[in-house]
Structure formats: structure tokens, C-alpha cells
Specification:
CATH topology of the largest domain in chain B: Aminopeptidase
Largest sheet of chain B: 6 strands, antiparallel
Radius of gyration of chain A: 26 Å
CATH superfamily of the largest domain in chain B: Zn-dependent exopeptidases
Structural class of chain B: alpha+beta
Number of helices of chain B: 8
Largest interface: A-B, 32 and 32 residues
Strand content of chain A: 15-25%
Largest sheet of chain A: 4 strands, mixed
Oligomer: heterodimer
Number of strands of chain A: 6
CATH architecture of the largest domain in chain B: 3-Layer(aba) Sandwich
Chain lengths: 199, 478
């Protein structure tokens, strides 16, 4: 014979469990029905605000196969690493525009830029950046030179640059430009000078 | 009774006839062969058909090339070639060669202790076993191990348009066969390789064209002519001249049914009847590399045009242009083979040539872009006599730039749009000799121009001229 108080307690617990299950089921349904637009996609870091700064972006132009310095006024945070990221994201935004002179694939983005002393910068691009990039020696070289020259021209003290894709080392950007080594910033500076002329 | 006898005799006779026909047809089918050309020996092996695929005996293939042994321990079949261990699994396409996994396109088979490997796997498996490049012509059953290919050029003699002169890079001894209006030079033992275009046309009414073809382990050059021709050999078998027969009857071309005409002494030079001795390794001055290949298609230039195919066409033509200027040239990729960037650098560095030319093609922009290596950070990581792998080009960069400048001058003289740049482009940085990359874009917006023989001729001729201009600077003997 089960004692009466025990039977009551078990019944109450079962009723509570059933009630909580129904509540959880209902909440899950609501969450699934919530529109995607409601998902907060804002970055964890506060948006860059405050005073804007004048920077030089080295923009690639496919029609002539050249790299041209171009002034831009963009808001930049004070932290060096975040400045580097915002700088390159501004450059990528130029390439993702409809009237881009050097189109990058949709969804291309800079994941992070790490500044490691002494003088090392690591640019981590996302998979869409590399997977959809056009193949060709000059096409890939323009992208690499544009990223590195823009970074080194605006963030002093960078001597060498490594480009990663989704945090991993990759042999080439799209079959040609070698990403397996560290880029020498002084050599890229010279290349950028070469690339500023179509001759 | 006679009617009964006729009723069974007819089907029996029919069956017998059918059996005989099948027997005759099977006897007539030529046995398939794989011809192997190497510096050690030139030989051929029978091709065995199993499960609808072509197979060859791996042990027999390697035996003339070095010290080889095999041990059967079913389902394992272990092979040791010059210290390189390979482990195959009978009935499985998986293998392990020198400690690295390999996947064959079909199962490995074992018959009476003989390990049979799919012929389609030779291009990928042999470089790892032999430690050097191989070029496989699978459809025609020809395998080139190392730098053994014999190239040729064909020109109409400038002083006599009725004479066609073939120059070969090594002595040859073809058999000559004739049929109406055609002469066939059959090369069953020589590693002859295709010219840039399989069909050669000449500005001669007597000999309008010649075609190159390969089949069942042999190469053949067919010369078309409206008149009987005579073949003569000179320069130790490196030159073959075809000219109208006139009064010489010895090797005159018949105009009837196909006949094989042996070369005879008489008015023509005496020719060796034996198979030529194994080819002496050539010393190459230039190495031309058709970039990409195999799974790596390079840029998709159009829906049907892949960069790897365009680079191969340019590379073959450039080899011909260089050879015609007396520059011995090795084509690093002469088929749809897949070579890694490191393998390309290793092959170049071990060949001790003077100049490396990597060819690329692009759909964007116009004209030609010349590149020398943009060396990565850390160009001082040499250790005594050893060069850093990623910066090995450092010591030759000045020569590379001089070569590129020379090629640019030649292209400009032909009014080809050209740019001279540096690029982070492997394997340029790992090559110890002078190294340039040539990226060829269409001359105008027409992408199809990349396949135009005229454009290919224009660009490769200029590149060959540019290299020719600095050949002594690069180290050629004057």
C-alpha cells in the first residue's frame, strides 16, 4: 500500500512535469515561427562612431589592371587592431559595390586582422572571399596587393603579412597568388608602384 | 534419309563457318602494347584487358629501370624499387607508396603472382615510385620516363620547295611504308613526341602537308605528296629528307597498295638496322612548364576552354620555337598530368637547365604579362651551400629580370601589349635558375584568339627570341 502523502506528491510532480513540457513545446514553436529578420545581426562590438579619419585605400581596377590610391573618409576606432579590420572592411565594401572596379564574390568579408609584434599582420578572410575569387595571376595579385598596401599605408610598423582563409593556411588564393608564405611589405610596396602604371 | 542428313548438315556448316570467322577475327586483332621510353632502356609490354580496363604488370614495367622485387602476402602485394616501398592491396584501389596514400582508378589485381596495375594510374603512381616525372600517352600506349622525348621540326628546304626536311633532336630509324600519295614514317622504338600541331602544312605544291599520329605504342608521321618520294637520312640519323624520287628506284614511293619499303644501301646512306641504343640523357637549356593540368584546370576561360589546355598548346609551340633556334627544351608537362608546384620546382632544379618558363593564360586584360618572382619575407634563410626552399630564386633574380626584359623588348617590337611585373607565384620562388612566368591574355576582347595559331606563333616566337637574345648571359656556350 502506497502511503497517501507519497501518492499526492508523485501526482503533483507528474502534473508539474507535464505542464512544463507543454510550456516548453509552445515556446519552441514560437521561437521557430519568429521571422529571421528579427535575429540581431549587429556585431558584438559597438559600431564605430565619432570622428571620421581620412585614409588611403589602394583600389584595384580590372579594366586596366592597375592599383590606384584613393582617399576615403571613414570612422575608425582607436584600438589599432580594430582600426585595421575596419580599414580592410571599407576596402572590401568598395569591391562588393555594384559598380566595383574589381568585383569580389558576394559574401566576401574580412573575418579578423591580427597585429602581432614585431611587425606581423595576419589577415583572415572568409571562405566566400577565396572560394569565389576569380582565377588569374593578375586578378589575384591585384587583390593581395590591394589588401596589403592599404593595410601597411595606414597602419604603420607592419613589415610582413600573412593571409589566412577561415583561420587556416591556404596554398593559393584562387590557383595562382601564393598564400603559403609571409608577404614582404617592402616588396609589395614596390609591386604596388609597378601596378600603378598600366605600362 | 538424304533430307534428314541435309537438315543437320546446314546448321553444323554454318556453325563451323561462324567459328572460323570468329577465330580469324580474333587472330587479326592486334595485341595491344605499352611502349616505355627511358634513359635506361626502351622496351614494350603487353597490355592486358581486365574488367573492361587496360592493365600492365608493374614488376615487368619497373624491372629494366632499376632494382626491383615484389613479395606477395595476400591480400597485400609489396613492391620495393630502389629502396622505395609500395604496398598494394589485391582487389582494392587503395595503395600506399613511400608512406603516402594513393588511390588507383581501378582495383589492383594479382594473377599468378603478377601484380597488375591499371594503366590509367601510371601517370600518378610512377612519379612517386621513380622519383621523377613521367609523361603518359594513355590512348596510344606510350610512356615517357624522365627527359627522353625526341622532338622534331619539319621545314621545306628554302632553296628547293620540293624537299621536306625533318630535324630530330636524337637519331631515329623509322621504317618506311607507302601507299597511294602517302609516305608513312613509323617510329616503333623512338620516343618521338607530337609537334605543336598534329597537322603540319607547307608552302610546297609537291609536299603540301604531313600529319603526326600515335597508336598502339608507336608514332607515325604521314607525308602527303602528289609525286613519288625518296627518303634519305643524314646527320647520324637526326635528319630525314624527303624529295621527289626521280630515277632512284630503291625507296621510291609506289602508287599502288600499301607496301613497306625497307631502306637499302645504294645511292642512299647506309642505315643501321638494329634498334638504336638507349637515348643518351639530353642536357636541356630551357624548361617550359604548361601550368595547371589534371584536376587543376586553372582559370575557366570560357564554358569550354580551360587554362590548362591553352597553356599546353602554348607550351608545345614554345618548345618548337626554342628548338628551332637551337635551344634544347624540355616540356615539363606534355599531357594532362597533375604536377604539384613543389614537384615542378624539384624537376626544374634537378635538371640543371638555364631558364624556366612557366606559362599561364587569362581571360582578363589584353596582351602578355611577364612575371618574375616576388620573394616572400625572409629572403636570407640560406644555410651555407643550402638555399631556402621558398627563397631559392634569390640568387638568380637578376638573370630572371634580364630575361623578362629581353622578352618584353621582343614583344614590344611586334606591337604586342606587354607588362613586366613581379608576382607571388609559385614555383618561381623555389626555382634556383632564371625563372619567368608568362601570362597570355587575348590580344583584344575576342577570347577565342587565345586558341589562334597565329597569335600563339606570334607570342611564342617573341618569347623564344627574347630567350635567344640572352642565352649567353644565361650560360650557353658561345
Amino acid at each position: 500500500m502506497i502511503p497517501r502523502p507519497l501518492a499526492i506528491a508523485v501526482s503533483v510532480l507528474l502534473a508539474a512535469a507535464l505542464g512544463m513540457s507543454l510550456y516548453a513545446w509552445r515556446m519552441r514553436g514560437r521561437a521557430a515561427a519568429a521571422p529571421l529578420a528579427a535575429i540581431d545581426t549587429r556585431p558584438v562590438l559597438p559600431p564605430v562612431a565619432g570622428a571620421t579619419e581620412r585614409v588611403t585605400l589602394f583600389v584595384a581596377y580590372d579594366d586596366l589592371g592597375v592599383l590606384h590610391p584613393q582617399s576615403a573618409q571613414i570612422p575608425l576606432p582607436s584600438v589599432r587592431q580594430q582600426r585595421a579590420e575596419e580599414l580592410l572592411r571599407s576596402l572590401v565594401a568598395v569591391y562588393l559595390d555594384k559598380s566595383s572596379p574589381h568585383p569580389l564574390p558576394p559574401g566576401a568579408d574580412i573575418r579578423s586582422v591580427y597585429l602581432v609584434d614585431p611587425g606581423l599582420a595576419v589577415i583572415d578572410v572568409n571562405a566566400a572571399f577565396a572560394d569565389g575569387h576569380r582565377s588569374g595571376v593578375l586578378a589575384e595579385e591585384l587583390t593581395v596587393a590591394s589588401l596589403i598596401q592599404t593595410l601597411s599605408a595606414n597602419i604603420p610598423g607592419i613589415l610582413r603579412v600573412k593571409i589566412l582563409v577561415e583561420g587556416k593556411e591556404r596554398q593559393t588564393l584562387a590557383g595562382h597568388a601564393d598564400l603559403s608564405n609571409f608577404f614582404d611589405v617592402s616588396a609589395i610596396n614596390q609591386l604596388s608602384t609597378q601596378l600603378q602604371s598600366a605600362q | 534419309m538424304p533430307s534428314i542428313s541435309r537438315s543437320w548438315k546446314t546448321p553444323v556448316a554454318g556453325g563451323l563457318l561462324l567459328f572460323l570467322a570468329v577465330l580469324l577475327l580474333s587472330a587479326a586483332a592486334p595485341e595491344k602494347h605499352l611502349s616505355i621510353y627511358s634513359t635506361a632502356a626502351n622496351y614494350s609490354l603487353p597490355i592486358i584487358e581486365r574488367e573492361g580496363r587496360d592493365y600492365v604488370g608493374l614488376l615487368e614495367l619497373l624491372d629494366p629501370l632499376g632494382t626491383v622485387s615484389a613479395k606477395s602476402d595476400p591480400p597485400r602485394w609489396r613492391l620495393r624499387y630502389n629502396g622505395v616501398l609500395s604496398d598494394f592491396t589485391v582487389g582494392s584501389p587503395r595503395a600506399r607508396i613511400q608512406g603516402r596514400d594513393a588511390v588507383l582508378p581501378a582495383r589492383f589485381l594479382l594473377e599468378n603472382g603478377r601484380g597488375l596495375i591499371p594503366m590509367a594510374s601510371l601517370a600518378s603512381v610512377l612519379p612517386r615510385i621513380l622519383g621523377g616525372p613521367v609523361t603518359m600517352h594513355e590512348e596510344s600506349g606510350r610512356l615517357f620516363i624522365g627527359s627522353v622525348a625526341t622532338h622534331f621540326t619539319a621545314t621545306v628546304a628554302p632553296d628547293d620547295p620540293s624537299r621536306l626536311v625533318f630535324h630530330f633532336t636524337a637519331p631515329v630509324n623509322p621504317s618506311v611504308a607507302t601507299e597511294a600519295g602517302k609516305v608513312h614514317l613509323n617510329f616503333s622504338h623512338e620516343p618521338i613526341t607530337a609537334p605543336a600541331s598534329p597537322t603540319l602544312t607547307f608552302a610546297s605544291k609537291v609536299i603540301p602537308s604531313a600529319t603526326y599520329s600515335e597508336n598502339n605504342g608507336a608514332a607515325q608521321i604521314t607525308i602527303t605528296s602528289g609525286v613519288p618520294l625518296i627518303a634519305s637520312f643524314s646527320a647520324d640519323g637526326r635528319t630525314v629528307t624527303l624529295a621527289p624520287a626521280k630515277s632512284q628506284p630503291a625507296v621510291a614511293i609506289a602508287t599502288g597498295s600499301p607496301t613497306s619499303v625497307p631502306l637499302q644501301a645504294g645511292p642512299l646512306p647506309q642505315l643501321p638496322l638494329a634498334i638504336p641504343s638507349p637515348a643518351v640523357p639530353r642536357r636541356y637549356f630551357a624548361i617550359v612548364d604548361a601550368s595547371h593540368g589534371g584536376d587543376d584546370r586553372g582559370e575557366a576561360l570560357s564554358a569550354t576552354l580551360a587554362e590548362k589546355d591553352v597553356t599546353l598548346a602554348f607550351a608545345r609551340r614554345l618548345r618548337q620555337e626554342l628548338e628551332s633556334r637551337g635551344i634544347p627544351t624540355l616540356l615539363l608537362r606534355d599531357s594532362d598530368a597533375n604536377l604539384s608546384l613543389d614537384d615542378r620546382a624539384i624537376l626544374v632544379n634537378t635538371n640543371h637547365a638555364a631558364i624556366y618558363v612557366s606559362l599561364h593564360a587569362a581571360s582578363s586584360g589584353h596582351g602578355v604579362r611577364l612575371y618574375t618572382a616576388l620573394l616572400p619575407y625572409g629572403s636570407d634563410d640560406d644555410r651555407g651551400p643550402f638555399r631556402g626552399w621558398t627563397t631559392a630564386q634569390q640568387s638568380s633574380i637578376a638573370l630572371s629580370q634580364a630575361t623578362a626584359a629581353s622578352v618584353v623588348t621582343q614583344l614590344k617590337s611586334l606591337e604586342v601589349t606587354v607588362r613586366n611585373l613581379t608576382a607571388p607565384l609559385r614555383p618561381l620562388n623555389s626555382v634556383v635558375i632564371a625563372a619567368i612566368a608568362v601570362e597570355i591574355a587575348p590580344p583584344a576582347s575576342e577570347l577565342s584568339q587565345l586558341n589562334s595559331p597565329d597569335y600563339q606563333q606570334l607570342v611564342t616566337g617573341a618569347v623564344a627570341n627574347g630567350i635567344g637574345e640572352v642565352r649567353y648571359q644565361l650560360g650557353a656556350a658561345p
